[in-house]
């Protein structure tokens, strides 16, 4: 190997030196990265702190919490709080009531909103944008303004203090938002698919069920996960339309554990953890579909 070749190899292996402007730009980028990760970690810690407090409190005894305070370091560990919340708080019955309300409401709302979005997005309906805006405007009204009218309507229909009243109200209030989201999603589906189905002899119902609905599955999965969480964790309509303790859903049953004078915060914390488990399971099960549906809708 000649000296000239060795000189070239050494020059090639020598790292490139950054100019002063590039060096300053690299430092600013590194500082921005460190600042972003630091601030994100602090925000995550602040967000996770209440959840951690509830988890720790749920394993403490009543004497420990009452003697040392709810924010103190735990000195005891027990699972009796979960037993008391599940048995004495009758959370199993409340869980059944919540599932009776949530599952039919999610299925009915998604089916009706998908049918409405299909008609508004695939056919030339007069004033379809006005109809869509009117449906969406219903979600902009403060719920507190219509609590008394909805209660009076439920009493007149003889469905007050029933789970059916909660299902009807939750379905009605979810239609506008879900239709708006599915309307924008269905408009991105090529019209040629619908024309091809029509040439094969498929009518509107068959086109909706066999062509459009399967293509809308990511958006339906994302909305299903969101609606399940919203409806399952709803408290306002549950305590407004239901008075009987045996018909209370989960969140209202957890609220009823709070005593007038003395409250066992460890049992309430355990009941809160139990109430959060179904929503966490649904989110984990639909996590890929949920994230994929949101990303797909944003790209299109």
Principal-axes shape call: globular
Q: What is the CA-atom radius of gyration, in angstroms? A: 28 Å
User: Within the CATH hierarchy, at the fold level, what is the topology?
Assistant: MetI-like fold
Approximately how much helix is present in the residues?
A: over 70%
Helix/strand class: mainly alpha
- How many domains is the backbone divided into? 1
* Number of continuous helical runs: 15
SS elements, strand count? 0
The unreliable regions are 5-11
Main β-sheet, in a few words? none
Oligomeric state as shown: single chain
CATH superfamily: MetI-like
Strand content: under 5%
SSE order, one letter for each helix or strand? HHHHHHHHHHHHHHH
CATH architecture, please? Orthogonal Bundle
CATH class label: Mainly Alpha
Report the span from N to C terminus.
59 Å
* Average of pLDDT: 81
Q: What do you see in this structure?
A:
With 300 residues, this protein is mainly alpha-helical. It has one domain (89-299): MetI-like (MetI-like fold). It contains 15 helices and no strands. The chain has helices at 3-13, 20-58, 62-68, 80-87, 91-122, 128-137, 147-156, 163-186, 191-199, 204-215, 217-232, 236-241, 250-256, 265-285, 287-299. Helix 5 (91-122) runs parallel beside helix 8. The longest helix has 39 residues, at 20-58. The termini are far apart. The relative contact order is 0.12. Mean pLDDT is 81; it is low at 5-11.
Write a brief caption for the model.
The chain is mostly helical. It has helices spanning 3-13, 20-58, 62-68, 80-87, 91-122, 128-137, 147-156, 163-186, 191-199, 204-215, 217-232, 236-241, 250-256, 265-285, 287-299.
């Amino acid at each position: 190997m000649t000296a000239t070749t060795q000189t070239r190899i050494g020059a090639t292996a020598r790292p490139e030196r950054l100019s002063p402007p590039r060096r300053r730009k690299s430092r600013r980028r590194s500082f921005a990265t460190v600042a972003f990760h630091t601030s994100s970690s602090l925000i995550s810690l602040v967000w996770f702190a209440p959840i951690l407090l509830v988890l720790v409190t749920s394993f403490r005894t009543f004497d420990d919490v009452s003697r040392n305070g709810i924010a103190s370091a735990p000195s005891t560990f027990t699972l009796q709080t979960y037993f008391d919340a599940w048995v004495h708080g009758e959370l199993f019955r409340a869980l059944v009531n919540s599932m009776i309300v949530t599952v039919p409401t999610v299925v009915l709302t998604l089916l009706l909103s998908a049918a409405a979005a299909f008609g508004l997005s695939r056919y030339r309906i007069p004033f379809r944008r006005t109809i869509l805006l009117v449906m969406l405007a219903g979600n902009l009204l403060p719920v507190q303004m219509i609590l008394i009218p909805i209660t009076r309507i439920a009493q007149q229909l003889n469905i007050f203090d029933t789970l059916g009243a909660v299902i009807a109200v939750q379905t009605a209030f979810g239609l506008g938002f879900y239709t708006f989201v599915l309307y924008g999603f269905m408009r991105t589906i090529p019209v040629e698919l619908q024309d091809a189905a029509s040439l094969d002899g498929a009518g509107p119902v068959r086109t909706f069920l066999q062509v459009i609905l399967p293509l809308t599955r990511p958006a339906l999965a994302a909305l299903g996960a969101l609606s399940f969480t919203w409806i399952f964790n709803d408290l306002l309509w549950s305590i407004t339309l239901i008075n009987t303790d045996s018909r209370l859903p989960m969140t209202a049953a957890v609220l009823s554990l709070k005593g007038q004078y003395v409250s066992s915060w460890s049992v309430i914390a355990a009941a809160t953890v139990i109430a959060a488990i179904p929503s966490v399971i649904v989110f984990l099960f639909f996590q890929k579909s949920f994230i994929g549906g949101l990303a797909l809708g944003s790209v299109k």
